[in-house]
Amino acid sequence: MRIERRKPLSAKVGIVSVGHHVYWDQFDGLRDELLAKAAVLGRKVEGNGVEVVDFGLVDEAESAYAVLPRVRAADLDLLLVDMVTYATSSTFGVLVRALDIPIVLVALQPRSSLDYANATTHMQLANDDFCSVPEFAAVAVRMGKPVPDVIIGTLDNDPIADAELAQWCQIAKVRRSLRTARIGLMGHVLESMLDMHTDPTALTAAFGAHVVLCEPEDIQRHWADPDPAAVAAKKDQILAFFDTPDPVSDPITMKLTDADLDTAARAAVALDGFIDEKHLDGLAYYYEGHPGSEMRTLMTNLVVGNSLLQAEGFPMCGEFDVKTCVAMMVMDRLDIGGSFAEFHPIDFDRDAVLVGHDGPHHINIAQGRPAIRSLKKYHGKPGSGASVEFNIKEGPITMLGNTITADGRFKFVIAEGESLPMPVPPTGNTNTLGRFEPDVRTFLKRWTREAPTHHYALGIGHHAQTLAKVADVLGIESVIVPTH
Question: pLDDT of 336-392, one tens digit each?
Fold first, then answer.
């Protein structure tokens, strides 16, 4: 089973094709041939679930100046420069100097190689996609901009190039999500967690997202008098999606009780109403409430609703960790998950370490059916109730930590590993046994050396290079923890 997204992912990707105006009178039909080639790229990009804005062919400085206002006005998340043939860098310099959006050069030639025995200059020019890439790179640097990424390959039957195009379309979706997101921040930092403090203004400056300061009473209004039909429907959804096993070895666990199911469903319905009211795209929170109060019951029973929302593409994390909420959003928009995680005990016998948490998790990346147990107490926190337990899919995994440096800037700490096919402790929390190269001791020392906070987002697949590109697009420092 899979929970569908609350909102479809979107992005706007512009395409500017570049060429050399001198060629058109010299070689009949070449311009039309190149425009047809550009149309193929447009269809490829559109197939990755983004809106494409085609700005046509720019073939001299004058036409570059003419198209620039349109490119600026389009509110793009990514600009692809289609290198349909050789182009002088005056076509590119105008754009790269003025634009503050990610730019990728696309050099996809029609032929995998020239037909050398029958080659013509026309054939060469129709496949001269890479020729001016070095020229454009040099001009970008002289304009004070980073060297653009380059996709090199053939227009058809090139899975490597197609995968790179798809990757950049996902990065565009990440950028669109972050710069338009409304992330709620509610409550306060769990007492004494000094690594959790995050300046909302700095977060907006770095990622574009607006931080919406919320009160616990904003959820409580929706908890106080819920629609009984909505609560019943939420119970049905929970029981259809989650297993409810008997307790095993942990004395604080019980089989899910009817009372805890009702509380979890009611809290989930309150969450849904709250985020709709506030038009939120994510939430970081921590609030305890007074012992025995309705507020404590509500605020300590959001875990099941959290996990459903996370699978719907709504990143939600506890302990007030809004910067990890951003990391979770990045992973979700790349469609690789993004569970709220930290390190748990090391398994020296298997050269691995448990990774997990007692809070929200991306249940769409669960290995098998996730479970709910009733807990008599939440360790280290007040309250009791239903809690989610599963391990993520076996195979490659990626971790993304979003930390803050001494000068107040954000930094991505990235690592790749493997989720092992091992059962998780039956404690009502998520846990996955992760193996990291070259060995668990060395890896954990290297991870710690980068000064991450103790939370991170956990996803499936190996995507370190993609996350590093996201950091580059955002202008954020990143490091990939080495495996050798």
Answer: 999 999 999 999 999 999 999 987 679 999 998 999 999 999 988 999 999 999 888
Could you report the per-residue pLDDT of 105-148, keeping only the tens digit for each? 999 999 999 999 999 999 999 999 999 999 999 999 999 999 99
Beta bridge partners of 80: 15, 104
Average pLDDT value for residue range 88-110: 97
Same domain membership, residue 443 and residue 335: yes
Length of the chain: 484
Query: What tens digit of pLDDT does each residue of 175-229 get?
Result: 999 999 999 999 999 888 999 999 999 999 999 999 999 999 999 999 999 999 9
Given 178, 204, 227, the domain boundary residue is: 178
C-alpha distances in angstroms, 426 versus 356, 384, 407, 431, 432? 13, 16, 41, 9, 12
Q: What predicted TM-score, i.e. pTM, was given to this entire model?
A: 0.95
Do residues 333 and 446 share a domain? yes
Question: Which residues have C-beta within 8 Å of that of residue 317, sequence separation ≥ 6?
Answer: 283, 284, 324, 325, 328, 340, 359, 360, 455
Q: What tokens were used for 125?
A: 């020019």
CA 288 to chain centre: 29
User: How many structural domains comprise the chain?
Assistant: 2
> Do 409 and 314 reside in the same domain of the chain?
yes
Looking at the fold, whether 275 and 145 belong to one and the same domain comes out as: no
Three-state SS at 477: strand
Residue 235: give the domain boundaries: 182-480
When the pLDDT of each residue in the chain is averaged and rounded to a whole number, the result is: 96
Separation CA 46–CA 172 (nearest Å): 12
Same domain membership, residue 425 and residue 393: yes
Instruction: Assess if residue 3 is contained within a domain.
Output: no
